[in-house]
Design goal:
The chain is α/β, with parallel strands linked by helices. The protein has helices at residues 25-34, 52-63, 75-84, 103-113, 128-134, 149-160, and strands at residues 44-48, 68-72, 91-95, 119-123, 140-144.
Length: 161
Amino acid sequence: MEKSKLKVNPIVKLFFNIYFPFVSTKVLKKINNVYQTPQNGTEHILIVDDEKSLSEILKKSLMKFGYKVSISVNPIEALKKVKKAPDKFDLIISDYAMPEITGIELYNKLNKIRINIPFILVTGYIDINLKTELKDKSNTKILYKPLNINALTTEIRNFFD
């Protein structure tokens, strides 16, 4: 049995369009000004996240910029740490979705231990209720995953500078 030969036409023309969203240079300059290069600090930050590997990465990143960083993989453990030494931490960075209690519930409990403790809530959820729950609290900020170290360090400095 003879193999059939596949005919290939060497001249194939494909036409397609690629559309990219337009971003003006004015907008790009504004974005670059908002999130500048990461800024250094000396404050003590407590990271609360049930995913230890993510916490470790964040810890190493922040330590490169001079921050002292502690980790708690359990929100109840974090509450105990803050209760034991309320003035030890200058800022809390917490994941929203954790076992036992949410990041917002953690904030409310922490705020009873130390009023107006600076707090950054990190979440992958885009939920209008999150903004509503933290709306009137000037010492809180919501950042969305994936985290950008420039955005994070800028927000950290906004609390302290």
